[in-house]
Amino acid sequence: LLVLLSQILDHWFESEPLKATLATDAVIGAMSSPHTPGSGYVLLHHVMGELEGRRGAWGYVAGGMGALSQAIARAAATRGAHIFTEKAVCRVLLGTDGRVQGVALRDGTEVRSKVVLSNASPQLTFLELTPQEQLPEDFVRRIRGLDTRSPVTKINVAVDRLPSFLAAPNTRDGRPLPHHQCSIHLNSEATHLLHQAFTEAAHGHPSSRPMIELCIPSALDPGLAPPGCHVMSLFTQYTPYELAGGRPWDEQARNAYADTVFDCIEDYAPGFKASVIGRDILTPPDLERVFGLPGGNIFHGGMSLDQLYFTRPAPSYSGYRSPVPGLYLCGSGAHPGGGVMGAAGRNAARVVLGDFRCL
């Protein structure tokens, strides 16, 4: 796992475009390049598991990603769970004995419970919601020191037609072709391009030729857009959380970077820019503000070797229990990390069930 991803790919493959395409899954969401030591693990993380019996496969959620949350909510509700939305938690309630007693909401409501599972990041859970005096100093120091750098700017796009790529032009009927129903990687013809894009961001500059992962979920799920139109998801990097010279990520900076991304797509699919109806740009600070992702990191913290396994989120606290009895961490900041797989939540639930009789 300490080996560079580029060494692994060079050992197994000869084709540079193939190596670069595989390399993108080793740097997705990570402020690192294919030449960064330990980057091989991130690739492994993205291909572990299976979907409908196919190892390493990914899939679309019918109805959009929100449909997955709704399905989980329905399953919980049928078993007696009460779900409250738009009810922000302001702090974890503790008793005089230091044990969890529930949570307090911003509207003043207190929800009493002897068990609290937090799906929020370790930083939000322990540095903002939990009384600091109840936590060990070394634990707090470790959580404060977590690497949460993120290279990701997410751009959601609405278009009035499918992009027609020079490498595989659209048919006259405008129907989706096989490649429209897959993950399309652009600016990924060679690993050195990924490294160059990373280097620019490491110096505080948005990549001039960003890595782009383009998906068109409406090509498989037409109900996501009006007839003839489509929605596109652009997962792009590298963009720094803080721009060089202290420049803010204002509307001008956001749009300038998005224009760079769109110019790149235009090179592969002429006419793309003319098809755009609307776009939503989420830089790392936006992802932090809107979704509570520290530093904009989709994994609640880097997936580097010093923040994995028995050190996630901190040494001696990788088993989902926290220093506060009754408070558990069950999100991406816990083992085994981020991704739409539910492993951290399932593992945490099993630990809680085992502890429940003692609480």
From TrEMBL:
InterPro entries: Amino_oxidase (IPR002937), FAD/NAD-bd_sf (IPR036188). It is found in: Mitochondrion matrix. Residues 39-173 form the Amine oxidase domain. Keywords: FAD, Flavoprotein. One of its GO terms (cellular component) is mitochondrial matrix. One of its GO terms (molecular function) is oxidoreductase activity. It comes from the Eukaryota. Belongs to the carotenoid/retinoid oxidoreductase family. Probable oxidoreductase that may play a role as regulator of mitochondrial function. Interacts with COX5B; this interaction may contribute to localize PYROXD2 to the inner face of the inner mitochondrial membrane. This is Pyridine nucleotide-disulfide oxidoreductase domain-containing protein 2.
